[in-house]
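We emphasize that the prediction below concerns an isolated chain of 583 residues; any contacts that depend on oligomerization or on bound cofactors are therefore not represented. The input was used exactly as deposited, without trimming of termini.
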Amino acid sequence: MSVRTTEGADPFGTVRLRRGVLDAWGASPARFREDANAEEDLALGGYRDRVIVELAQNAADAAARAGVPGRFRLTLDCGTLVAANTGAPLDAAGVESLSTLRASAKREGDRTAVGRFGVGFAAVLAVSDEPAVVGRHGGVRWSLAEARELAAQAAQASPGLGDELRRRDGHVPLLRLPLPAEGTAPDGYDTVVILPLRDGTAEDLVGRLLAGIDDALLLTLPGLDEVVVETPEGARTLRRSQHGDHVHVEDSARGLNRWRVVSHHGAIEPALLADRPVEERMRPHWTVTWAVPVDTEGMPLYPATAPVVHAPTPTDEPLGVPALLIASLPLDTARRHPAPGPLTDFLVRRAAEAYAELLGDWQPVGPGLIDLVPGPLGKGELDGSLRAAILELLPRTAFLAPAVPSEDMVALRPLEAEIVEGAGAETVEVLADVLPTLLPAGLERRAELRTLGVARVPLTEAVDRLAGIERDPSWWWRLYDSLAGVDPERLSGLPVPLAGTGAAAGGETSGEGAGTEPGTETGTAGGTGTGTAGGTGTGTAGGTGRGTGTMSRVRAVRPAPPSARAGSCCRRPRPRQDWPGSG
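Result of the prediction step, given as a C-alpha cell string:
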C-alpha cells in the first residue's frame, strides 16, 4: 500500500502545525533540544519494542469511540507493515495529538480510552522514518528527509538552531512536522497506518513482535474483537467472545483458549491523584481485571502469556501470581514500571479483593484451585505487595474443595479447613462424614496450604475425635476396612463398636445382642464375650472371657450387618496396655 503526497489539500491543517513548530525552534533552539530529547526517549526508551501493542491500543480506542466491534489487521510484506482498523477515523484533533509530544486527544470522562498521553504512536519511530496514517477524511505522513530540509531552512535565520542540528548530525524530532497525505484504508476498515520499515533490523523486530501476539492482546484491549496477522509465512486470526464470566479466544493457529475473568472498576478519590499528571487527573477512573485460563473441566491452567503486570498493556514489572493482571496502574516516566505511591497502593488492594472474589466465586470447586494460591515470596516490590494483600484475604475466602462436598458445604475457607496427615483417600472420605471440614487426602505436602495456615491433624487425633459418636454399622465397617494395614500404634484410641446393646471392650456395661456372623467371632480389645449367629452372646468388659485377637488386623473386629443388629454403641477402649487380647 502506498501513500501519496497531496497537491494543495490539507484537511487537518498540517501547514499551521509545522509553521508553529519551526517558528518556536527558530526563536528558541532550546525548545528544539527539548523536543528532540523527548522524542528520542520515547522511541529508544519506553516504546522501543511496543509498536504492535501501541497500534493495537489506538485501534481499540478508535473502535470504542465509534461504538463498533474492533477489528485490527496487521500485514507485513515487502519491508512494510500495514495496520488497518475499524472505528472512529483520523481527524484534526488526532493529527495534532500524534504530532504533539505528551498531548493527548483523549479528554475528561473518556472511560473507554486505554492510552494515557497520546504518545504511544512514537513507538513507530523505532522501526520507521516515514510513517503515515490515512483515514476516510484524509491523511497525514512524516518524512525524516523532508523534516531535515524544513529544519535546515528555519536554521538559516537562527544560528542557534543550526548549531543544534549539527550537534545531532541532522536528526530532527520527526513527529513534530506532519505533512498532508492521500490514500485509502483497505475495504472493511476505517483507518490504516503504513510503516515502511527502516532496515532489516527493524523488519526482524516487527516479525518477532507479530509472532509473539497472544491472548493477552485481546484480553487487555476489550475494544478489540478480532486481530488478523498476515506475514509471508501465512495468515493467523484471533477472535474474542464473551461467555458469561468466561472469555474465549479462538486462535486459528493455536486453538481455543478459555479464560475465567473477573473485573472491578470505580472512581478514584482526588487525593489519590494529587501527585499524578494533569492528563491522569482528568480521568479519575480505575479498573482491575484478572484472567485465568481454564481447561475443559473448568480447572485453572498456568497462563502462557508473559508473566508481567499489564497496565493495561505489558510492562517490565514481573508478576509471580499465576494469573494475568490487567490494571490501570500509574506508570513511571519510562512507561516500563508502575510508579510507587498512594494510587498504586490503592489499586493493589483492589486487585487483591478482585482476586479473592475470583477464587470465591469459582465454579466448579476442585483441588486444582490450590494452584492459584500465590507463594509468600514476591518477584519484585509490586508482586510482593500484591501477594501479601491476597494472602491476607484468602484464609477467609471459601474456595477449597472439601473431601466430601455437600449442598451445605460446597467449599471451605482455609481457616476452617483441616488435613488429616497419614490417612489414605478412603479413610479421609469416611472420616469426612463426621468431620466435614477435612480436605481430600494427598495434599499434605502442598506448600500453598501451609501458606494459608490450613490446620494439620494427625490420624491419631482424628481417631480420638470419634469417641462417643453414633453411626450405622456399615459406616464403621467402611472405616475399619479403610484402616487395614495402618500401624496399630496410631489407632490406640479407635472406638470398637459392638452388636446389641453391649459396650465396646474397655467399657463398663454389659448386654445381650445377636451374633455378628455365622460361627464364632472372638473379641479383640481387652475381652468381650463371644456370640454365634442365631444365638445369644453376652459380654462384659473385663469379664471372664477375654478375646484373643489383636489390632494388627483391623478387620478382625467388624460391626454387625444392619440385618443382624439389635442396636449398637461404642466406647473408647482402655489404655494401650489393654489393647491386645490374650486368651
